Amino acid sequence: MAVSVFDLFRVGIGPSSSHTVGPMRAAADFAARLLAAGGLEGVRGLRVELFGSLAATGRGHGTFPAVLAGLEGIDPERVLPAELDAALARIEETGRVRVCAELCDAPREVEFGIPDIVLRPLTILPTHPNGMRFAALDAAGEPLAEETYFSVGGGFILREGNEAAEVDRIESAVAEQPYPFATGGELLAHTRSSGLSIAGVMLANEAALLPEDEIRDRLEHLWRVMEACKDSALERTGVLPGGLEVRRRAPEWHRRMRERDPDRDPQFWQEWINLVALAVNEENASGGRVVTAPTNGAAGIIPAVLFYATHYAPGAASWSAAEKRAVIADFFLAAAAVGVICKEQASISGAEVGCQGEVGSASSMAAAGLTQVLGGTPEQVENAAEIAMEHNLGLTCDPIGGLVQIPCIERNAIAASKAVNAAKMALMGDGSHWVSLDQVVATMRETGRDMHSKYKETAMGGLAVNVVEC
Ligand code: SF4
Hints:
This protein folds into two domains: 16-159, CATH 3.30.1330.90; 173-208 and 210-466, no CATH class. It is 50% helix and 10% strand. It has 18 helices and nine strands. It has helices at residues 5-8, 17-36, 52-61, 63-71, 81-94, 184-194, 198-206, 212-234, 250-260, 269-285, 301-312, 321-345, 350-353, 359-373, 378-390, 408-428, 437-450, 463-466, and strands at residues 10-13, 45-51, 96-99, 108-111, 118-120, 131-137, 143-153, 156-159, 289-292. The strands form three sheets. The chain has a five-stranded mixed sheet. Strands 1-9 form a two-stranded antiparallel ribbon. It is globular and about 70 Å long. Iron/sulfur cluster is lined by residues 297-298, 350, 355, 358-359, 397, 399, 404, 407-408, 411, 457.
């Protein structure tokens, strides 16, 4: 197992992990390599080509400005939305990119803007549908340096020639982990031999990288960013950017829920988690600061189900801060264990396997996290993850206008409820079940492989073509 909880949950910006965060990270990696090779001085121009899904839906997914920002060395994990907006406004006004501006004191300023990006939507590079090629050019227009990257989902990137090791996968790739696993079967075997829970196995592996206190601090920080994301959305009215004129519903729903349910009656749990999912996804759709979980398009599911856990779990109202912190950590760790399996055995990229890989994986992860903190056995946690994934199989990716809005925003709310239901069903049983998590994840992979490419984040099929944009 080489994927960490902090690979799967990362702070970033919306609207898409594969189409915004990944391309920004790839462009920044290219710029950093150029700088490290001492090649900045001779750079007089740039060439950027986008392939497949990035070219087809990049306009609605914020890919083009993300590439420009990345070339300046901007890090999606650290930049604030206002800072990013200011940098992009400057680039648009001047028509010039300051290559490596965030990485050194002497950036190279070259003429380059969104119209210069070459789009090749019908060309799919062999490694992955989300391909990018960057070149730095000399005065004669000849390439000084050239790299090809792939954005493989969840903000993960690969550099051509280095496919075995994702560029940005954190130190976990080299760490010695006590309980390595890539399948549900291996994970359950570790819980049986060690007596640990699924969250406990994941924590032991993470502890090979970081001190336990730091792991818990970072997990709590992720939860706080999720909360801030939701709270920010509740303050913002009007319509979402992109031209579809999709109205932000979260603030109005919030006002109505506060009137209808001032005392948090448990009968309204579903309305509240719908609201949290909607809020996070509206913030994501507007380019706000979100936690990739495990992708941006699916970023509302885990915050919504974590909200359920921290508000409706037995005794939640009287938890101490330390107890709540422990619950949050266990939730993230169990969810991440399932995320590892989805990523290792299938994919979390909508461009590769459709929405089942994004929303399906997030729903499955959330079901595992909730079952863990509700006291489920490892077998019940695995069962919950399996149920949630099984009932998201076949989900296509067909965003209208190539924007991460319709069906994505509501889909997160529906998938959050599925996760809660999956946890409840698993907790009613004893953990034994017909279809294993490994079998359902393999089915997701094969279904994704068979799915027509027009249903895989190209906005060329499904709702994207059957609903007329106004
Ligand atoms: S339909 Fe699903 S996979 Fe496609 S952009 Fe929306 S959330 Fe992501």
